[in-house]
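Bench notes, afternoon.
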Amino acid sequence: YQKQMTDFTYFSGMWQATDIQETTKTIPSKDYYIARHFFDTRNSFNAYATYKIDVAQDHHFSLMAGFSQEDYDYKYYNTQAEEQALIDIPSMGNAQGKVTVSDSYADFGIRSGFFRFNYDYKGKYILEVSGRYDGSSKFPKDSRFAFFPSFSMAWNVAEENFMSGTRKWLNQLKPRFSYGSIGNQASAGYYDYIASMGLSTKSTVWLNGNDDANYVTQLGTPGLVSANFTWETITTSNVGLDFALFNNRLTGMFEWFQRDTKDILSEGVDLPGVLGVAAPNQNVGKMRTRGWELQLGWRGNIGEKVQYNVGFNLWDYKSKVMKLNFNSSKSLGSLYEGMDVGEIWGYLYDGFYTVEDFKDTSSWELVDGVPTLQGYSPR
């Protein structure tokens, strides 16, 4: 048994600002006092324990398990009071005119349990298994938790007995493979699982032409929400080879990887505009990234006092949208199913109109036989 580790982190920030605005004499009684308050609090707690044991000197085991929790709370208040009775001593109570109050807030929490198991035999056979069970308050109550497993294995071939003849110049030859998954909640809003209705205060200036009177509260249409949207899952598979030669002076690595992002939060369906609300986010998207990386390094010395290191790195990857039910923006650089990420979309054209293509420039009527697009004027 090694030891238990715990830590607790607390951060709290407060920002306050006040401002008094005195307008020119041409617009009397329009001075106002503003007070803004901002509170930001973050709490994090981590606790874990590690157990290590060696069996028959050659078998090495290690087990780690732990728990973590993070909370975030944000509050913002804004108050504005117009027509101050005493400009030199501004306050909310001195307001002779309209007083408006607004605020905003956000909070969320993450709770996780995790573990990691390691085993190696004489540094030749290496195995690691790990997992996380994460929960986020950003998702509906029945969809907040998900399990994300990972594992990796490696074989240091250079340590095998049948490789003894190469040990004078080969220090490491280690093929390896890994598979891992992790959750992503960044695409979800704080309260996307709540069908909220926005409140706003508007003037009825269209009734009496007075912008300072007859304010009414408006209630917006509730948005649509998905009943069971949850974490996006990112899985990565790696196949690699590490090597070291000539007393570890020449080192290198080659790796091929595939990263799949599943259950991407996106608009699930195309809804008619007459509905009046946007389509809710659902776990409907999938994206795949494939790539490779090559690293080479050389270290040496000139004499006894000068040492140097030289490195080389080369990599490439490409991401493709495997599934995307609907894309409402259709903007330049948007994601489209079956296409690569980063592709730029545009129109094909056959050429430009010239003066000779028109009968006259007053009516902009095209000469017979000149192509045009139905429903559009070349003018």
